[in-house]
Design brief:
- This protein has two domains: about 55 residues, no CATH class; about 140 residues, Alpha-Beta Plaits.
- About 45% of the residues lie in helices and about 15% in strands.
- It is built from eight helices and six strands; from the N terminus they run αββαβαββαβαααα.
- Strands 4-5-3-6 form a four-stranded antiparallel β-sheet, with helices on both faces.
Amino acid sequence: MRWFDLAASALRILKANGLLYLSPGLEQPWDMRQTHTVATSNPNGVASIRRIAQSFVMSQSIARVLIHTVFSTKSREPAFHDATFRSEVHAYLGGCAKALDCLPLKIGGVADHVHLLTTLSRTIAIAELVKEIKRVSTNWIQKRDGMFRQFHWQAGYGCFSVSESKAAALVRYIEQQEEHHRKITFQDEYRELLRRHGQTWDEAYVWD
């Protein structure tokens, strides 16, 4: 039995015997800071059980972090010029993110790069998230015939934090990628993102 199952069992026993009172709405997750104990005819036994329960306290951890991840195809090849296939790729990338417990909010882009607006799970690092999305999607894309057998994403990526108040505007920006890139290249767009987020870069290494 896992430690938090033991803790839950101990607290249920206490509650069932009138030894523990949990405030309404606070019965899960278990958190002893929100409990009250009452005196009984067997204080030594109660104290012993109480110490066991307290040693297994589990608090709830909640996180809501939004990130905007951007990367291109290798050498910025326009691999996704077909709109139907591009939509399939975007959907697949969203599925990859979701499988890693990172909720896809909006995935988009044009023929040579993608934008991903997702949440960031508490249990994964950004580098691991991007590596796995690229690895799994590359394998899937390479299974197609023709030019896709040699498909690769660029090695690098950009990842930027997004406030909740700016999320809706970023969704619209991603939705308007085709219109946006009639006027600007991916490289100029990426440079602007870096500048906006106070980053410096070396032109000799940022493109691959």
